[in-house]
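Query protein
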Amino acid sequence: MSTPSPTRIAAALSTEHRGRLMSFAREVNFPEGARLFEEGRRADSFWIVRSGTVTLELPVPERRPAVIESLGPGELVGWSWLFPPYVWQLSAEAMTPVRAYEFDGETVRMQMDADPAFGSAVGHWVARVLAYRLQQTRTRLLDLYLPRTGSFG
């Protein structure tokens, strides 16, 4: 039996805080190939994947975007909605048809401010996701740019 990822909502938030957050959700669908957001644009929403796969990408000059991570059910898509200036730091694409819960960032931020316990729980969850994704990004970039060494026996 596998251990749930600590970045997934079910492992990161208590039943109470998860229920409160979900009360602000609306169900949305994205077809395969849909762009959820683009680096540098305004970040005003976020999503929790219900089914399907979303990839996070880092644009790389003169190359294809570097895929940082593939996200699946229960995972957070987007964190830039929480931090000024509310601009996407990566891009995201639906790699398969995706069903997700969508949240308005401003509404959730206001609720976080109004209820410090809820705000702390959501803030810690997003911070945990950020720390994990930063490590994933580092690993992917090292894979892309470290010179390959080989034996020429």
Notes: The two ends are 44 Å apart (CA to CA). DSSP finds four helices and eight strands in the chain.
